[in-house]
Each structure stands twice: as structure tokens, then as C-alpha cells.
Amino acid sequence: MPSVETRAVLGCGAAPRTARRNDTAAAATRPAIVCRCAAKRRRARRGMCLAKLSAHEHEHNAMTAGMASRLTLRRTAAAGILTFAAGALTFGAHAQQAAARQSVDEIRAAARELVLKTLGTDTNAVVEAVAIDERLSLPACTQELDAQLRGELRNGQGVVVVSCAGKSAWRLFVPVRVSEQIGVVIARRSIAAGEILTADDLETRKQSSSALPYDFIGDPAQAVGLTVRRGIPSGTVLVPAALEHPEIIERGALVTLVSGGGSVSVRSEGVALQGGRLNQRVRVRSPSGRVVEGVVEASGEVRVGT
Fold it and tell me: How far from the centroid of its chain's Cα atoms is residue 58's Cα?
């Protein structure tokens, strides 16, 4: 075995250099060196190929993303154009449809004019047409609208029938509300139940009709002489339901029974079995002991056979 130490500095692609060459050792190590160099060259070529392939894929992906972006932009623009066109067509259709509908304001105006005409020119009333649906869709009338009062105005309320006699005929019931100052009878003081009303207990005031009850007394003569059924506070508007006629006949009193009519009538006496007011039905025992029923009249007589 040689005693000379061999030091080799090897590089791929270059021949080995030795300070002192031993032919036998050099011959033994040369195949291994060549193999390592060839392996390094193959790995280098593979790395270059992979790098080129990666760059190519990156470029392809970038081109694909750009094409997709441009395609999406074109589709969005097309959709926007179509949406705008559809909106324009819809707006035009709505405009034509609105032009062919009857104006709700014109219906209200026709109802108000009729009520004001009915009340007279010297009234200070405010007329409102209420409960008309703004979504109402009626064909536009080619003629002047016709308005008729249905029934009569009561306590500031009523109904007006507005109709169109044109090509597309229709009819609509319009509720109206009238607010005006009306004279009403009110209690001047607090009145207890059972009291009989006098003129000093009452006074007349003007109040808005929209705030009045359904039924009220407007003339003091309609209330004087009536009996209060329940307590009435001061300033309360009088209504017929709170008043009643006083008892004309007392229970146990002698009363006159009247039967028949015209020029022939029969009168007899009897005993009232119950108290009675004007136009109220009461029972009376006749002299024969028979119990009959009749209606109390203003004179205090009881008419039977009615």
C-alpha cells in the first residue's frame, strides 16, 4: 500500500488534481467521481425543466384569469343594459296605466261639491270624503262624474254615490263627514235622576257636529217637562235616551178607560195596576173585575183595544 498521502480536489467537469499522484489510487476513485458529477448534472437539468414548467403554468393561469375577468365584465354590462331596458319598459307601462285610471282626488271633489251644494251656500261646514282606498283602480271616466246623496245627512255623516256613465261605467259609495257648528241643548247644572227638567236647567250652545253623539236634542222645548232617567253632569249634551216622560198615571189611581174610535166611543173607570208614562202600556182592572191593557195618553186616559 503506497505511503504517499493523496489529496484530491475534485470538481464536476474538470480533471482531478493531485499534489502527488498515485496511479493506482487515482484509477480506483475516478469512476465514483464521474458518477457523482453526472448525478449533479441530471438534478440541475431537472430543476431547470421544473422552473421552466412552473413559469409556463403561471403565465397560462394569468392569461386564463384575465380572459375570465373580461368575460365576467362583458356579461355584467349586458345584464345592466337589459335591466335598464326592462325598467324603461315597465315605467312606460305604469305611466300608461296611471293615465288610464280615474283620479281619486276627482272622486273626492265630486262628493264634497254635492254635500256643500246640499247644505247651502251660507254654511261654514267642512266636508271630508273618507275611507277611499288610494290603491283604487277605476277606468278613467270620459264624462263628468255624477254624484248623488244616498239617504240624508245625519249628525254630520252620510254617503255619496259617485258614478261614471261613460264607456266603462262604474259606481262608488263614498262616505262623507261634515263638520259644522250646530246648536245643541246642554245641561246648565248637574241634574239628578228623577228630576223634571225646566227651561232654567237648559241652555243652547254651538258645537262641532263631528264631536256630537249620534242622537241629540237641538231644541229646549223637546226636553222641558221630561224626567231625567239618570244623573246628567253640567255641560253634557242632552240625548233622548237620558230622558223620559214623567208618570201620568200612578199605581192604584182611578183612570178612565176609552174604547172605540171616531164619533162612537165608550168610557168607563178602572183602577191602574201600575204606574204609566205617555205612550206606555199599562194594566187596568175594570169595574167587572176584568184586567185589560191599554196605552196611556197625554190626557191621562187609557185607550184600550189598540
Answer: 63
